[in-house]
Write a structure and sequence with these properties.
Elements (H helix, E strand, L loop, with lengths): L5 H5 L8 H33 L10 H8 L15 H6 L6 H8 L8 H52 L10 H42 L1 H46 L3 H6 L3 H53 L7 H42 L20 E9 L8 E9 L3 E6 L2 H10 L8 E6 L2 E2 L5 H7 E4 L8 E2 H6 L7 H10 L3 H5 L8 E2 L8 H15 L3 E5 L7 H14 L4 E5 L3 H6 L2 E6 L2 E6 L1 H7 L1 H11 L6
Length: about 650
């Protein structure tokens, strides 16, 4: 069995036997039947207008006609104002149309011209309205189906993005998953909607129309199908060839356009060397080439289109000739109404086939979008829980980086044989000339990323063999630009976890000096935050993140400071919050403020992938030239950026 295509994964066959898919099929069937009935009524109406209700029956057929129309034996049939009786008699041998008309002739109202005209127009309007209703229901159901499929894809992408984790160390959203979430999923929505709305309805319509035409005159239908198919093919060829010629003209002209645009940027050189005449000649040469290439492309496109349209006209003329020949045939001719039915029926067939062709092309695009999503969903996460992973106790002695190497892609390693020991219940600031380096070190602690070589140890236990839940419960990361969730302030602090009470969340907010500004919000802790709620400034958002971590009372805390300048009130509040958070806890800072660097127990300067200097700020600033250089380039008031 062949592997399922991207389209099959989105819309497996079983979906058309379930709920929405089955209802789309049923409404599509009803729409196809409705349009065919409308076509039949149109034929009857044309026939009524042509024969004016004039009934002509050979004397030998009179007894049969009396019985056929339900008159008493011996009754003389009327010859004028007979409504649909002439049509019913002409189609008596074509089932089921003839039988339905024969049954209708039992109604005296249909035996008159006005009565037949009224009922035909009424029936035509009714089935046309039914067809419109069917299309509306199909559209609604197709939209629901597309929404379900797109929602399923987006849910899978969201789940996978959480499994795969971070895309890099620059704290930017994963561009791949964002593109898949927005562009490809949007294409999937549009593609599924168009397919469900069109595919089954047009297939069923074309099949029923073709069966009707075959039933009316199978020879004429088969004779006309060949030139019609050729005309449709030429139409598609014209569109494709015209597009190819346009692209060819653009490609040919692009070189000349680039050369012309380059000339616009050289006035100083041209005037400096007095080469205006030479430059003008060059410019005119490329301008002539551009004009020639554009005209050539347009001529080729016009020639292709003219040839294709001439072929379409010829093939259409053949179809008209075949239909006209059957109308004028001396043996068993078809009526004008049947001829009109063939013309309209062939038009419906062409319309349906064109719609199906567009869906085939759209299905290819749907396959591409679905396969792009599938490739991401099959991505193996960089960080996963080992089989047989064990519970890791909170750090009580030290955190050790042992011979760690980490690189992004094929670039120079950010960490290379990196060694570091951080004592428990100490405060450390990790700094580097490249912020990605300190971020890589911090990300390894809660296992957002993995070392490509070496180990990270918590009290001599390799975290690679620990459960993610036990590690992340006691090693929390507060990012400087962590977004707020769409929810209340309380939900942002508790993360929606019911085990944390409002009182506990309030105490955590007080600990980091967030309680005061929260109380000033419109609804306090019940104020809605996020995209559709109140907005907090960067300092307030950062303190919400600190409160979120303080509520959980972890053994270790990683704090990445925002890359902004706080006002004096916020600075004092955050400094006091740090003092409280650092009490009897291991805290690792990725600082952006010099005051934070000065307050920690140790500063670790990482350069060229290894520890360059380590110690209190006061020691490093006097003993390490590289640290003084880092401090100057990072915090001097004249630095750019």
């Amino acid at each position: 069995m062949s592997a399922p295509t991207g389209f099959d994964r989105l819309l497996p066959r079983r979906i058309w036997t379930q709920s929405i898919g089955l209802r789309i099929l049923l409404w599509s069937s009803l729409a196809a039947i409705s349009i065919v009935v409308v076509l039949c009524i149109f034929a009857l109406l044309v026939d009524l207008l042509v024969h004016h209700g004039h009934l002509v029956i050979a004397p030998d057929d009179a007894p049969r006609a009396v019985a056929f129309f339900g008159f008493d034996e011996g009754t003389t049939l009327p010859t004028g104002n007979t409504g649909l009786m002439p049509t019913a008699w002409a189609l008596r041998n074509i089932n089921p149309v003839g039988q339905l008309l024969a049954w209708g002739m039992r109604n005296e109202f249909l035996r008159t011209n006005r009565g037949s005209l009224f009922w035909l127009i009424f029936a035509w309007a009714s089935f046309a309205a039914l067809w419109t209703i069917c299309r509306s229901r199909i559209r609604t159901l197709s939209s629901r189906l597309a929404a379900e499929v797109a929602s399923r894809v987006r849910s899978d992408l969201h789940r996978q993005s959480l499994r795969v984790g971070l895309s890099g160390l620059d704290n930017t959203p994963n561009e791949t998953v964002v593109s898949l979430f927005l562009r490809e999923t949007g294409q999937i929505w549009d593609g599924v909607f168009a397919f469900a709305r069109t595919w089954w309805r047009e297939i069923l319509t074309s099949v029923l129309v073709l069966l009707l035409l075959l039933r009316l005159d199978w020879r004429l239908t088969l004779q006309a199908v060949v030139p019609l198919a050729a005309a449709v093919w030429l139409y598609w060829y014209e569109r494709r060839a015209g597009a190819d010629q346009r692209r060819l003209a653009i490609d040919r002209a692009s070189g000349a356009v680039r050369a012309l645009s380059e000339g616009l940027g050289k006035p100083r050189l041209v005037r400096g060397y007095s080469m205006e005449h030479f430059e003008h000649e060059q410019f005119q040469t490329y301008l002539d080439r551009l004009t020639r290439d554009v005209l050539l492309g347009q001529n080729l496109e016009g020639s292709t289109i003219w040839t294709a349209r001439a072929g379409i006209a010829l093939l259409s003329a053949i179809v008209l000739f075949l239909i006209g020949a059957r109308v004028l045939s001396e043996t068993n001719p078809i009526s004008l109404a049947v001829a009109a039915t063939f013309l309209v029926g062939f038009g419906l067939l062409i319309r349906s086939v064109n719609a199906l062709k567009h869906q085939v092309d759209a299905r290819l695009k749907l396959d591409i979008a679905s396969n792009a999503v599938q490739r991401y969903l099959l991505t193996i996460p960089e960080v996963s829980q080992a089989v047989g992973a064990k519970f890791i106790e909170p750090v009580s002695k030290s955190i050790i980086f042992e011979n760690v190497t980490y690189a992004v892609g094929s670039s120079k390693p950010l960490l290379e044989r990196f060694d570091l020991r951080i004592p428990a219940r100490s405060s450390v600031a990790v700094v580097s000339f490249d912020r990605r380096v300190s971020r890589a070190i911090a990300y390894m602690l809660p296992r957002f990323i993995e070392p490509q070589a070496g180990r990270v140890l918590f009290d001599s236990e390799d975290v690679a063999w620990g459960t993610l839940e036990s590690i992340r419960a006691e090693m929390l990361y507060v990012g400087g630009d962590d977004p707020l969730f769409t929810g209340t302030v309380l939900q942002n602090i508790t993360c929606g976890d019911a085990k944390y009470t409002t009182m506990a969340a309030t105490d955590a907010a007080k600990m980091v000096h967030a309680h005061q500004f929260i109380q000033k919000l419109p609804q306090g802790y019940e104020t809605l935050l996020g995209e559709h709620g109140d907005r907090l400034d960067a300092g307030q958002s950062f303190r919400i993140g600190l409160a979120r971590a303080a509520l959980r009372n972890p053994a270790c805390l990683v704090v990445e400071e925002p890359e902004i300048t706080f006002d004096s009130v916020t600075k004092d509040a955050i400094d006091d919050a740090y003092s409280r958070l650092m009490n009897n806890r291991t805290v690792i800072f990725l600082p952006t403020r010099l005051s934070t660097v000065r307050r920690v127990d140790q500063v670790v300067l990482v350069n060229e992938g290894r520890v360059e200097a380590i110690g209190p700020y006061a020691d490093l600033v006097t003993k390490s030239d590289l640290f003084r250089h880092w401090e100057y380039t990072t915090y001097n008031v004249y630095k750019k950026g």
